[in-house]
Design the sequence.
């Protein structure tokens, strides 16, 4: 494998910020050297990253691949292109598939990934058997097979007993429990508030989210388990996680929650319908503040592809969920760096080193010697309009929006995989 030298890029890391212009030498799929200036040799491939950010490849801990069971909405080929074009080199696949991803099908899915994609696809396995919420799944077997986390995402584990068992096991297995904190939806398509009243639609109360989070946090503290709260959407849930000074309890949010509010639903566009729903401007501001102060440690997508005909059914009848792999990085740079003036190193650690820590991935998420050469090169000032997608679905709230910040190049395992609209996979 030919060595690759990335020169003159601004390395984004917790220590470097935007101050250090450094070179990175890649060899045999690994980062061989990081230094202020590395003299190239004639047989090396040279990438000039002048004026660009060089960062670890994004690790998205919340992705619905739709595999198995709904490959019309997404498949490994399409999700790979969607991810790479957005600087994402690793994803954690959710288990609400058909059949549910558990200890019975993990091995076959991993084999399929190895044969079909260069994208690093890790798997979460179910908490309850078949995601039915009736009995605990075989978490020990799933862990032995390579599961990186456990979740019934798409549903909350209503049984306190099952959640207690799962969190106790998480401590023994050293793997996190990911909780979709939501008591119920009642099929309410949007937030309970001003917009739901204007549209005369049933609304989802914030209480459905924060009460579920409150219970799970309490159980995690009592059991000593590892709890990760998924897709926080409101200030009340943030208030709960603020009170917990414990590394075993972490939280995530998504770009749509710090970009949009319930008012974006006034026109009835179902591409703004997700679960939990968009909340108020006060909630949006609270989420950005929590990201800046470290109360929310991870930014991810909750990438949930749906067919056009399904999303065309309107707010009441269309499925919940939006895609996000192609806009995750751009939206975060646009909203948090350019508009909210957040430190880029702080923003990007929430998509790189923090997700790696959550999933116990020791060789990804940092630009350090010996780490996997999964790298994204980004133009933070590139303006572009979101028009089309590599995903098989296009249910994005960012569709038609102008964003500032764009992935230029993505390297996976030391190999160029994407460059300025072209794929090499």
Sequence:
């Amino acid at each position: 494998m030919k060595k690759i030298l990335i020169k003159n890029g601004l390395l984004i890391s917790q220590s470097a910020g935007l101050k250090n212009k450094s070179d990175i030498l890649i060899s045999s799929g690994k980062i061989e050297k990081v230094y202020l200036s590395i003299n190239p040799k004639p047989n090396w491939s040279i990438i000039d990253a002048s004026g660009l950010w060089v960062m670890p490849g994004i690790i998205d801990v919340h992705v619905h691949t739709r595999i198995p069971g709904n490959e019309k909405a997404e498949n490994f080929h399409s999700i790979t292109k969607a991810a790479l074009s957005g600087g994402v080199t690793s994803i954690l696949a959710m288990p609400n598939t058909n059949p549910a991803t558990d200890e019975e099908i993990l091995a076959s899915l991993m084999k399929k990934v190895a044969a079909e994609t260069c994208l690093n696809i890790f798997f979460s396995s179910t908490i309850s058997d078949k995601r039915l919420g009736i009995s605990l799944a075989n978490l020990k077997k799933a862990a032995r097979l390579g599961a990186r986390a456990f979740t019934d995402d798409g549903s909350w584990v209503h049984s306190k007993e099952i959640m207690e068992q799962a969190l106790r096991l998480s401590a023994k297995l050293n793997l996190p429990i990911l909780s979709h904190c939501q008591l119920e939806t009642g099929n309410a398509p949007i937030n309970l508030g001003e917009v739901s009243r204007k549209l005369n639609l049933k609304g989802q109360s914030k209480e459905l989210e924060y009460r579920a989070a409150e219970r799970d946090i309490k159980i995690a503290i009592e059991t000593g388990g590892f709890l990760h709260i998924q897709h926080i959407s409101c200030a009340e849930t943030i208030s709960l996680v603020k009170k917990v000074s414990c590394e075993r309890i972490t939280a995530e949010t998504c770009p749509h929650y710090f970009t949009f509010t319930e008012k974006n639903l006034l026109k009835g566009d179902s591409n703004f319908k997700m679960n939990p729903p968009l909340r108020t401007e006060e909630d949006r501001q609270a989420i950005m503040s929590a990201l800046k102060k470290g109360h929310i440690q991870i930014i991810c997508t909750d990438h949930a592809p749906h067919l056009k005909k399904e999303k065309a059914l309107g707010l009441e009848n269309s499925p919940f969920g939006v895609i996000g792999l192609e806009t995750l990085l751009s939206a975060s740079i646009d909203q948090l760096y350019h508009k909210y003036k957040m430190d880029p190193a702080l923003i990007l650690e929430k998509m790189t080193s923090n997700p790696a820590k959550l999933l116990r991935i020791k060789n990804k998420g940092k630009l350090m010697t010996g780490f996997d050469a999964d790298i994204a090169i980004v133009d933070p000032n590139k303006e572009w309009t979101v028009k089309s997608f590599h995903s098989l679905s296009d249910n994005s709230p960012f569709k038609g929006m102008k964003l500032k910040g764009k992935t230029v190049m993505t390297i996976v395992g030391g190999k160029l995989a994407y460059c300025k609209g072209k794929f090499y996979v």
